[in-house]
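Exercise 7 asks you to align residues with C-alpha cells for two separate proteins.
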Amino acid sequence: MENQKARALVTGASRGLGKAIARALLDGGYTVIGTSRNPQAISPENIVEGVEYLPLDLSIPESIEKLAQMAGEVDVLINNAGISQIGPVEEAPLDRVRYHLEVNIIGLIHLTKLIVRGMRERKRGCIINVTSFAGRITVPFASIYAAGKHAVEGFSKGLRHEVMRYGIKVIVVAPLHINTAIRMEKMYEDDSPYITEVKRVKAARDAGIAAAPSPEWMAGKIVKILKMKRPLPAYPMGRKAFFIAYLMRVMPETWVQSAVRKIFNVDG
C-alpha cells in the first residue's frame, strides 16, 4: 500500500495517543480522518492541521453508522478510542459497565464491520486495534477495562483469520504503559472496604504511566508497522514489553498472578 494514496481513520484523535497517531500518519503522507465525540469542542492546541475531524460516539450505533458513511473509502482503520476505570467489580454500577463495554468492544466491532466490507471489496486494507497489556495481564481494580481489552484481543485474532485471504492485515498493538491521560472513571466510594488496595493500585499505575514512553514514540512505531510487508499479528509496546510478554507465555499463570499482586501491592 502506498501511503501517499492511503486514507486513514483514527478513532479518539482529539488528544493523547490518538492525536499523536493522527499527526504521525499525516507527516507520513496519509490522508487522515480523526474522530472525536465533539469535534467543535477540541481545544486549539489539540487540533492537528490537515486532519479532518468527524464526530463519533462509540456508544451510539447511529453515530457509528453515520461516521462510516461520512468517512467513505478507508484503507487504514486504527481503533484507538477507549476509556478506562478503577474500582472493585463489587462497586461498579452496571449501567457504567455496559457503557464501558459499548465503547471499548461493541462499538469497535460495529465500526470495524462497516469499514472492513470496503476493504474486502478492494482486496486491501489494514486494521490496527490498540489494546493494552491489561488485555493480557489483568490489573487489579481494572477488571471492566481488562474485560474489554481481552475481548478486543480475541476479536482481532478471529477477524485476522477471516480477512487474511482478502489482503487485509489485522494487527494488535498492546502498550504496557504510555505517558498519556486516558480517561479513568472512578468506580469506588471513598469509604469502600477496598479503598486501601485501590489507592495502592492507582499509585502504581500512575507511576508507571509517568515513567512510560510518550504517545509520539508509540505513534512512530505504528507508522513503521504500517510500512511493513509482513507485520507480526501483535506488538507489545513499552519498556521491556517484549520481555514481559515472553515471560507471560513461558511462566505458569500462578507465577504471573503472584507477580502482578506484588507489583501493585494489593496484599499490603
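Second protein for Exercise 7:
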Amino acid sequence: MTEETAVRTVQIKEDITSRNNAQAASIRESLIREKIFYLNVMSSPGSGKTTLITQLLNRLRSDYRIGVIEADLDSDVDARTIAQTGVKVIQMHTMGACHITCQMSREALDALGTQELDVVILENIGNLVCPAEFDTGAAENLVLLSLPEGDDKPLKYPLMFEIASAVAVTKLDTAPAFDFSPDAFRANVHRRNPEAPVFFVSAVAGDGLDELEAWLRSRINAVIGRE
C-alpha cells in the first residue's frame, strides 16, 4: 500500500500581488514624504496616451519639474516623442511583460532620478487587463479609453475602472463616426467606481483639456504642498 503524499496548494497570484501591493505602498509613502506626485497612466494600445501626456506636459512644465517613464515591450518611439517637450524622460523595456510591477516601478524611478522633480508620470503598457492588477506605487491612476473603443468597456474590464482615480475618454473629435453614448459610458464607469470623475477630451482639438488639467493640478498640489 502506497502512502499518500500531502500536496500543498499555493495561491501564487494572490501571493505575488499582495507582496507587490505591500511594496508599492512603501514607494507611495516615500514619494509623498518627499513631496513628489506620481501618476500612473493606463489604457489599451492606441488610445492616445502619449499624445495626451504631451499636451498635458506642455501645459504643466512651466509650473512643475516633471519626469516621464515610458514603458514599452520594445522601441523608444514614445520616449523620443516625449523628449521633444523638454522634460526629463527615460524608456523602460519590459522584455515582454504586459504590466509594470512595483519593483520595475522602483527601478525606473531610481534610473530617472527624482531628487529634483515635483511630478513623475508613468505611461504604462497598453493593456486594459494586466496593469490593473499591479500597484505601481503611484499616488493616482489615470485611465484612458478612446471613444472608438465603445461605451461598454467599463463593464468588460471592471478592475481597470475600479482602480481609476479619474477616467478620460480620448479622441472626442471622432464622435460623429461612432455610436458612443457619453451618458452610458459615465453610468458604466460609476457602476464600478462612483467617485471617479470622467473627462471627455480631444488632444487634437483641445476639447476638455482645461478640465482635466485642473483636476491634475489639484492632485499634484495636494501632494507637493502648493496652493
